[in-house]
Amino acid sequence: MGRFRGTEITGKIVDNRQEHMNAFSMVHEGIAFLERTMPLGARFPEGKIFREDRFPVPIDALREILLNAVMHRDYSNYSGYVAIVVFDDRIEIRSFGRLPNGITVEQLSGRHDSKPTNPLIAEAFHRTGAVEVWGRGTNRVISMFKKYGIAPPVFEERHGFLVVTFKAQMVRAEEIKASGVESGVELRGESRPESDTTSRIIYILQHTPKSRNEIALSLGHKSISGAMKKAMTNLLSEGLIVYTMPNKPNSRFQKYRLTTKGQSHIKKTMEETGANEE
């Protein structure tokens, strides 16, 4: 998993991670990486009370493609891998291996049968309810993009990999100009100094409650750091987050959620930085 400045692989490396884990954890870690790497915008639709948070690419579509990349990778070659590569103007998900015989990249955008490359892996994901077995995954992704109002992803076979490219503006034009750096500036979600841990935790919790381990994973940490513990203690004392099980603070099932004050903090921050404008 990598985040590069600019639009080429030769750009400055902002984030670089190599993980070796089981198939289910690979998908979970991949989505966590994308959620903390993509900028999150927000707007207040006319006539509605609540804001609408929006990633540049629908997260469910990324999850669908990542699931397919893990399930259909060519595992017969020990040097193969699945890669998530993020540039300033796009996201690429690359899976080592070719499409099953009889299926072309053009067919992925239309009707096609399901031909699992690794039936046992596909069955394991199916039994968990993560995927279907009808070959509708890529069609559902395209539908998501149409509903989102942006161009659908591009499918291609390249140098032994199946590559899915999502066009996405990972930095805003005005920020690039203001920074004086041709390849863009660092936004929320990318690697940041430890002092910004508090703000990152607030953004991580804005959609769903999470446990400490889940928060650490979203921060890109393999374990709960001292800085994270201190940040969460401060957030609790300031009333920005609360326990989901207040009567059992030490429960192993304990999670944390944002309070109304925490949501207001995010809204205020977005208004100050202009992040609510698309």
3D architecture notes:
The protein folds into two domains: 166 residues, Heat Shock Protein 90 (2-Layer Sandwich), CATH 3.30.565; 82 residues, Winged helix-like DNA-binding domain superfamily/Winged helix DNA-binding domain (Arc Repressor Mutant, subunit A, Orthogonal Bundle). It contains nine helices and ten strands. It is α+β, with helices and mostly antiparallel strands and 278 residues long. It is globular, with a radius of gyration of 20 Å. Strand 3 and strand 4 form a beta hairpin. The C terminus is likely disordered. It has a six-stranded mixed beta sheet, with helices on one face.
Short account of what is shown:
With 278 residues, the protein is of the alpha+beta class.
Number of distinct helices: 9
Instruction: Give the number of domains.
Output: 2
Structural class: alpha+beta
The level 1 CATH classification of the largest domain is Alpha Beta
H/E element string? Answer: EEHEEHEEHHEEHHHHEEH
In quaternary terms, these chains amount to single chain
The CATH topology of the largest domain is Heat Shock Protein 90
